[in-house]
């Protein structure tokens, strides 16, 4: 199972991050421990939402979509 997740920075609520993982709790802990250079300066993070996919290709495609301009509009409309 693959999960696409959306994080929000707690001290900087306008900062968000979209990622893909097989273990959401472990990945959130990794972000909050500063192990990702893209998210370390805005930690701690909280999970806004995550979605499970049985098909890894579909999960990857959804993650890529959420990182596009139209994906940002979708995120704002449905998750924020």
TrEMBL record:
> What Pfam family does this protein match (any one)?
GIY-YIG
SUPFAM superfamilies recorded: GIY-YIG endonuclease
- Please indicate which superkingdom the organism of origin belongs to: Bacteria
Give the matching CDD domains. GIY-YIG_SLX1_like
Q: What positions does the domain GIY-YIG occupy?
A: 1-80
UniProt xrefs under PROSITE patterns = GIY_YIG
InterPro entries associated with the record: GIY-YIG_endonuc, GIY-YIG_endonuc_sf
Coiled-coil annotated spans: none
Q: Which Gene3D superfamilies match?
A: GIY-YIG endonuclease
Name of the protein in its database record: GIY-YIG domain-containing protein
The opening ranks of the lineage are: Bacteria, Pseudomonadati, Thermodesulfobacteriota, Desulfuromonadia, Geobacterales
């Amino acid at each position: 199972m693959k999960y696409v997740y959306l994080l929000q920075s707690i001290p900087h609520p306008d900062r968000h991050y979209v990622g893909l993982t097989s273990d959401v709790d472990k990945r959130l802990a990794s972000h909050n421990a500063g192990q990702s250079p893209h998210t370390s300066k805005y930690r701690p993070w909280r999970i806004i939402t995550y979605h499970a996919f049985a098909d890894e290709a579909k999960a990857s495609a959804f993650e890529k979509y959420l990182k596009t301009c139209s994906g940002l509009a979708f995120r704002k409309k449905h998750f924020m």
